[in-house]
Amino acid sequence: MQYKGSKITRIFLLPYLLVLLVPIMIGTLTYNKTISVIETETAKSNMTLLNQSKEIIDRRLDEVDRITQQITLDPNLITFQYIADPFEGSNTYRTIEMKKSLVNYNLFNHFIANYYVLFANSKLVMTPTEVYDLPTFYPNVLQYGKLDYTQWTQQFMGKYHTKTILPATAYTIDGKEQQMITYIQSLGYGTNSFATIVILIDNLELVKLLSGLDIADGGSAYIADKNGQIISFISNESRPFSPDLINFTSASGTIFPSAASNNMMTTYTTSAYNGWTYVVSQPAHIAFEKVNYIKNTILTIFMLSLTIGLIIAILMAYRSSKPIRFLVNTFESSGEEMGKHEKTKDAYQLIQAGISRLKNNNDALQQEMDKQRPMLRIAFFERLLKGEFSISDDNKLVMDRLGIDLFGETFVVAVLSLSDHNLIVQKEIQQDLDIKSLMIKDVISRISENVFFHAMNGNKVALIFSCRSRNLDDCKKLVDEFVLRMNREMHEQLYNPSIGVGNIYTSLEEISRSYQEAEQALDYKIWKAIKGMVWFSDLPQTNGSYYYPSDVELKLMNYIKAGNQTEVQKLFVEFYSENFDKRNLSSSMMKLLVYDIKGSIAKLVEQIVIDDQLLTKQLQALFAPFDHLEDVQEIFRSIERTCLHICEVVNSRKRSHNDQLLKGIIEMIHSHYHSPNFALLAISEKFHISEVYLSYFIKEQTGIIFTEYLEALRMEHAKKLLLIESYSVKDIAEKVGYNSSNTFCRAFKRIYGISTTEYKKTITANNL
Length: 768
Hints:
- The chain is an alpha+beta fold and about 775 residues long.
- The chain is built from 26 helices and 17 strands.
- A seven-stranded antiparallel beta sheet has the order 3-2-1-7-6-5-4, with helices on both faces.
- β10 (about 250-255) and β11 form a beta hairpin.
- The longest helix is centred in the first third of the chain and has 68 residues, at about 5-70.
- It is elongated.
């Protein structure tokens, strides 16, 4: 009778389908919740970034307040503000002392770009490093926006300021335009103010804090004071920034995208310190980009998971039913094994009858195994002592079947010699050895149940101890007591065996290791003719290996390639300490260490081709053979000197290459400075160097950046051409690499402080 496999498979498939419905329902319920949570987390993420920026700026502004307070309380400043003529008589000394008392705060506070103290009576401007008179200082050293001198003095010194903060404005400082936020504090009270402190805060510091926000595709972020004035902002649009100021109804919150908000998500928070509002606005598709991505991802994964789940359910049902189908077909096809059992159409009844017959056969097999148990025990112990044993459920079942209780916490092996001399063993009658072995086995069975006897080939017997305690001292005490009792019993039989014991271990897999150690201890005992039992731990120990791991070898080679002499010296100090101070190496190990390091140097020399006669001689001497142990340390030092010399050669090669490269770059600049399109890219392409590294290289070698060097070169040539009357300003601009004469004139005036026309007049007048 045959059963259709598809019927059994369908029976197994039904539970899998029911189980598959559970994650489908849970996934559907959690999908909407997940999307909602992610949208909320997106808003929280923006709020977290804003709060972090707010807290940092509040701390920095508080530091600025405290710095301002320190400056205003300076006794020298309080006195000096009333001086009208700072360089008359003793006032000169007061001027010097006043400048010395100003601390350069921007050395330890990068938030502050610089600060100035403006004195109305003396018409002086002081910084921690310089002293200027007001007309020279403004606008030659500093200029605020497009204000002239009168407007600037009126705004900054003409009225009283209390912690006044002006928005980010373009300053021209030493000829360079920079965006700065201005902090102003007047000294005194009301109209009696004779000094003003002006602190410039680098707007880039605020922009860096806001740059972590995603403002792509029309987004923006800004900081506004409590009056709605924009202090600083970032935007990815090229047009002027003009945010829609919103009257927020709370100190912080999020306005989600809607038609009223122009489909923008706005997150804002207000500082309790100064009332500033921090705002970020993002288009909905940018703000919820992750949400939309996760939506699509979840739906895709859901459909794939559903499809895969159905396939897996079918496969698992087929796989699970396969043993049942196999059993049914097996029992059905075996008419002889069916015996007198009535055939049935119920597959499970058929399987039950077959299992019953298998049990009967197993009982018969068990009886046969009991007869073979002694041989199986011998085979088991052979595998255990050879290290072929591993802890598994099958092996535990085997031990249980063989009546071997090796389920202790600690294990140790002792090896007994039936005869201490091989020559005697060869002459002794084998029957006598068997008698001794049986005597030991009989004594062990009488004095302990946790010691297992195993006769080895030849004249040795292994004893395996299984201790119930995890304490190693307790196990050692148990072994000592057992051997003492056994020796007493054996002494009565006029026989005292030699015994070697290995170390104690906590794992069955390590019994083979203990066995090997016990054999070494026994061999040492016989060799030294030591009386009594010998533990492997009592044998004299030596350091067997040297310290030179592969990762340290790689590190040494990399440091030498980089020419880093300091790190190379540190590594050799480490090598010497580890191998000569901390380890007691044998002569062969020391030689192996030296050969290993020499091999590293040989590999290194092949990688970097070096043409150096001194180094060649050093290497020839280094690789010469040596025989005496006392030469090892001197050779080790010679290796160190050779490595340091290789570093010197590498560094010299680097310096030579840099000089040649700089010479080529300067020659190219002098040859092409008159071309308006000449830029860093042309040099980069010629010398096959990235623009970033090239810019860094020029700054490192010349002290100025590429554009400053090119501009200075063009201006030097322009000054020479201005002496020639036949050349117009336009002609000169074209000859020195400018497309526009206006651009050339602005650059000339920015660098030299006068226009080209005035310069030409001055030169002409001097010549007359």
